[in-house]
Write a structure and sequence with these properties.
Layout: H1 3-7, H2 18-38, H3 42-65, H4 71-93, H5 102-124, H6 133-154, H7 160-195
Helix pairs in contact: 2-3, 2-4, 3-4, 3-6, 4-5, 4-6, 5-7, 6-7
Length: about 200
């Protein structure tokens, strides 16, 4: 049996694989990013954040490519994504020049709690509640806003365009957070309505 063939065997119950290892590594890096922001090491936090966020695409591709999608991975991957974002946002709220207000972080974190609860209800009943395109773009803009905010904080004399860009990215992330949250609520409503037996 070749190495490639061994990789594509049914791995549903095998949690020790590359995608899950990347997710655990991302979790540790997310905690480190939070500490680095608190210690005012903004550029270091930015590069580690970029690396950690980018591995999300790598582990997803690997899991699909080599049939290493596991039940643990389906839970761990979105959980770690939320920790990466929330750890950075909460830490950035402590810096007045970050352009990320506490209400922004509260809104984004609240949306994640809502979607996670809905997903648990839907998938607990055997339904499919996979990520939608708007939710993926929301993640992209949230990451971009965090990177821009870290660049802003790390610059001794930030240019005006960087300040404007950060504000625009933060508001774009907020808008997509609200819209994607509403999209998931509507999707869940349709799922529950069609699955409810009629008398």
């Amino acid at each position: 049996m070749t190495a490639t063939a061994s990789l594509v065997r049914d791995p549903t119950n095998n949690i020790v694989n590359v995608p899950n290892a990347l997710s655990f590594a991302r979790l540790l890096l997310a905690v480190l990013v939070g500490f680095l922001i608190e210690w005012n090491s903004f550029y270091s936090a930015m590069w580690i954040f970029i690396f950690a966020a980018s591995t999300d695409f790598v582990d997803g591709w690997w899991a699909r490519k080599f049939n290493q999608v596991t039940k643990v991975g389906r839970i761990l991957d979105p959980f770690v994504d939320k920790i990466i974002i929330t750890a950075a946002l909460v830490a950035l709220c402590a810096h007045s020049g970050s352009r990320i207000a506490p209400w922004v972080a509260t809104l984004i974190i609240g949306r994640e709690f809502l979607v996670t609860s809905i997903r648990a209800m839907v998938e607990g009943q055997g339904g499919d509640f996979s990520a939608r395109w708007m939710g993926k773009w929301k993640m992209v803009f949230q990451c971009a806003a965090i990177v821009s905010s870290l660049l802003l904080l790390g610059s001794s004399e930030p240019p005006a365009w960087l300040d404007w860009t950060t504000v625009a990215l933060v508001w774009s992330a907020v808008a997509l957070t609200v819209l994607s949250g509403a999209d998931y609520v509507v999707q869940a409503f349709h799922i529950f309505r069609t699955s409810t037996p009629k008398n």
